[in-house]
């Protein structure tokens, strides 16, 4: 079960990678970000598919999406210059709380 959780978290982080690569690909006109997008997307989906064989689907999907959403928002703030506001950070904390709740209550 521990391996499934580790794979799930890595897959969520890869969701952040493919989202960032998608933005950097320039509508798939730039080769390397486009290839990174495809590779990270495939690896992320493969990891999620493995995780759902050991973790309930609703929990696994919620953790995967939450990890990717929080990671992507933080990437946007840290690297892309998106605004960092108290309201945005509180919303991210609420996502994390929801993901932790899903894990604790499954």
Task: Note the run of SSEs as H and E.
Answer: HHHH
Number of distinct beta strands: 0
Q: Strand fraction band?
A: under 5%
The overall pLDDT average reads 96
The secondary-structure class comes to mainly alpha
Count of separate structural domains: 1
Evaluate the radius of gyration: 15 Å
Helix segment tally: 4
> End-to-end distance, in Å?
13 Å
Sketch the major β-sheet: none
Low-confidence stretches: none
Shape: flat
How helical, in percent, are the residues? over 70%
Subcellular location: Cell membrane
Family: Belongs to the drug/metabolite transporter (DMT) superfamily. Small multidrug resistance (SMR) (TC 2.A.7.1) family.
Membrane topology: Multi-pass membrane protein
Keywords: Cell membrane, Membrane, Transmembrane, Transmembrane helix, Transport
3D structure, described in words:
- This protein has 106 residues and is an all-alpha fold.
- It has one domain.
- Helix content is 81%, strand content 0%.
- The chain has four helices and no strands.
- The radius of gyration is 15 Å and the shape is flat.
- It is a multi-pass membrane protein.
- Keywords: Cell membrane, Membrane, Transmembrane, Transmembrane helix, Transport.
- Its main location: membrane.
